[in-house]
Amino acid sequence: MKVGLVGFAGSGKSTVFEWLTGVKPDPAAIQRGQHGMVRVPDERLDWLAAHFKPKKTTYATLEVVDTPGLLTAERKDNPRRLGILREADGLLIVLTGFGGGDLAKELEHFRGELSFADLEIVTGRIGRLEAQIKKPRPAKEREADQAELELLQRIAAALEAGQSLLSLGLSEEQEKTIRSFQLLTLKTEVVLVNAGEEWIGKPLPNDLLALAPQALAAPVKLEMELAELPADDRTAFMQDLGLQEFSKERIIRSIFSGMGLIVFLTVGEDECRAWPIPKGMAAQPAAGAIHTDLSAGFVRAEVVTYEDFRKVGSMKEAKHHGVYRLEGKTYVVHDGDIMHILANK
User: What is the pTM of this model?
Assistant: First the structure.
């Protein structure tokens, strides 16, 4: 999954990028979108790798794309800056958690910029459709254009009113119609407060949580500085600050799940691997994460939950204890399922 890292200039967004990916920000690369990979920590895969001792262990990853920060004064350039993210699957919105700003107001302002950028795309298409409908065309094409025009007019009205497009209750066919626009306001979002030391041990404000109930917070710059210290000094500083542990791994896992993703696991002496899929996906399309041939020729899936496997220790014992299952095409995969796909060639 490709996650767009976004926020206003000065939010410390690029510091968050380096913290997550280990890649130093390059101002030139950011202008066109700087890419970095994040490995998703998984204690289950750690245990399985220790158990099987495979030749290779592969964790799920997220691709993070850093982009130019949005401007608060010269708004006319913000749609171009956001345009880099149209191909992203989700947005990680970084808020300025230092300097005493209003986090809820900042998030509302940022969402307004997303709506403004989408409105520019939608109104441009509306203008072209209105001109197109006036020209002589076959009735079927005119009807399709009229239906799209009415849909986009509804969407434009919602964006202008600051309403969520999710509240429009769009049908599957209508969603298909607007898919090519890659609207930013329809993308999955996770909110991360780039917190200063003053937020350590404190809850996020209620007005922010009312807008983003699953908002995250991390003292990003502080953790990066602490990580560079010798171990003894680091421990002493963390105790003084009341910081129990680094939050990076927890935050990465929360971003991963916040993007609507889970993993299923495959195990063996050659490789233990976590395969990321959307939550709620059935076994047959999930098999395609490994290879399209497994989805096309899917017969069934052998499934054991990670928790059950850890208790019994082997597939043989899983069968013996009745926790080994055979599941069909429509089985909804659960996070942490250990699966072996059986398929026709």
Answer: 0.92
